[in-house]
Amino acid sequence: MAPTLRRSAAADKAESEVDEAIAASIVAPAAVVVAASEHVPSAQRPRVELPAAAQFPITVLLSFAAASMGYSVLGELSKGELAAVTRTQETWQEVGLLATWRVLELTLGWFGGLDSLDVALMDLLSHGPSLYLLVRFYTLSPATAISALAIDVVSAAVPFYLFRPLSDVHRASPNLPNRELLDAPLQLYTTALSSVIYSVTLVLSLRFLLPRIFVLYFSHIPTLEPAYAASYTSVLPVTLLFGAAASLFIFAPFATTGKAKEDDKIGEFDPAEASLGQTVWWNFWGYTAKAKVVIRRTALITVLTGVNTYLNCTMNIYGVEPTGAAIYSLVWVVAALFTGMSLGLVGEDE
Fold it and tell me: Using an 8 Å Cβ cutoff, are 47 and 161 in contact?
């Protein structure tokens, strides 16, 4: 392990520039989807009319084709920079595992009823941690990292955009329940809350947990200096964007979910008269429709963040052992979990 040096003003400035670049990498891919949605004259149409049974398979094929083309172009333009700091899969089993996981990601998004903006935000939150690791601790340039994340996000979101209209919450439909909860002041508050949770979790982990993990389980990591020097101001550009993405993905659809007919049955539940099966179901899933939204979306982000970060570390970065990848992933899973729980409390019904 290379020795670390005392930080200078020039180093602080360089770190600030890197953080700003990472933040740009997180917001730029989503801007593609948002900008496209602003030109949609009608919210009701899918952009391409195909039989329903064919839409998802074609979405998967388009996503893989776009990602393959994007990474090929990136490799040429960056002169193989990404390949220099990441490893290729050595067996067909590894290739199959990554491909299967990507299909599962798209499956969860498609059959979970997500639209293109949801998928963009989902990919930002779940693919961002590995980007942060590569830029801050390895030699990958911010420009190449931005491009790689953009390829992942756009290759997933654009096929969804072709076949599925934006949801009411992303169109700010006038018939949306609790529409006032999407006003700017509350959105700023939930973004700030989410950003604080990500910041505290990340900084404390970098200062007190991850340096030891990096030494033990990340054998090819070039430096530990960004971990020892982590501060709330240094991570803010990144965590602010994670907070905004989490707020849009979790809080907005949760807060604007109205009361469902099934909600009345929850209040009428009588454990004295219920069967064992009904009692178990009520204890496990006896929540209102609104609460189920925040539970589902928080669970989705935590699972995708954990698995994506783990796979990217163990299968794409040299010298990362499974234990180290799992612990690094856990840091981001905890941040996502606490963020979802906090946003659920903010939008909780009286």
Answer: yes
